[in-house]
Amino acid sequence: MNLHDLSIRAIVILVAAGLLSACGSIIPREESYDPPLPEQQVYEPPSSGSIYRAGTDVRLFEDLKAGRVGDILTVRLTENTNASKNSQTSTSKSTDATLANPTIFGRPTTFDGV
Fold it and tell me: Is the pTM of this model over 0.85?
């Protein structure tokens, strides 16, 4: 083999490698996303020897409004919309056409001799 054949062979191999590498695709890594979990409430065992348990108090003079962390809120939206549209159009047309009695050879024409 001579130098010319080796250079052609090297060029063919490089072109083939370039074309084959274009067929492959790189799959991007997706970052895994886990939604944040709510904070876990710590279980407190009831204390022995006590009548009162914390967190279970009932307020006698309180309404049922949300006031503590974790209470559910209901939001009511009231929307009032007023719209008006007026339109007024007037058109008129006046036409006046007059036609003189037709004449033939300078004499007025009549219908049935009248």
Answer: no
